[in-house]
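Bench notes, afternoon.
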Amino acid sequence: MMKICSYTHNAEKAKVLYGHLDNMPVLENCIPYNALIKALGSRESYAGEAIEVFNRMISLKVIPDSDSYVAVLKACAKIGDVKTAYNVLHYMRQQGLQPNVYIFNGLLRTYAGACASKDVALDVKEQYVKDAWSLFRQMQDEYKLPVNVNILNSLLLVHTKSFKVADVEGMVLPLYEKYGIALDQFTYEHLVDLYHAKRDFGPVFRLNDQLIAAGLTPSFNTLSNVLESAMRIANTDKIVEALQAFRKIGRQPKNIHLKRLGEGANMPDRVYLELMQFENKYGIIADKVYRTEKPNKYSPA
């Protein structure tokens, strides 16, 4: 049951089940701990508790396995807990376990999580970027591990979360060609997120077009950034394209975007017709009289 919770990200149910298992012999091995760490660590709001469970397991002298370490690193990545990530390496060395690609990917993602934090000083982020490169070289030189798209995407994420556009374009992206690895859905997602955050909307649209031309399906996050970029520059064509793309993947745009569009002034008919296709409706799309002396900035011709 706890494994099912980990697959469905049902952290609340996993905690209830864990309470029932307390003080039972089954807790002498790492399997129930792994399931709970996976369930809690799959959501950012519970990642700290996942790490607490891992630390409790260590304090009770329950021996972790590779699944334990991969699971707790996913939690570390959610909140950028670099300290716990390095403890993982320490425990693995004590057990004589060799880090695999999943461990290195988790370490890189943890650095990305730390670089995304507003509480981390710029000089510390610079050091984290250097450490990420050291890990990238170490996995190849010392452990002879192969580079895959997940590793490159995680290294890319470290740089996008640090807003290092020049390094992304000059150092990270060339690695995909060097290793013969095609950009995937998440590569584009990280890149679109970077340029959207920089308010450089031209690359946002170009990257989304390249993604589609490559036969890939844009993620929900990518489409959200594309839609918001189009709204910021009041580009009706791009807004319509983004709304249609949401319907293709069977998802609704964020409510905040639907609300801003539905309550916007001078809504074009094409946008109105697209908004009518979604379940959640706001403003005139919900057939409510909407009046305002200060309409929002969305007013494309």
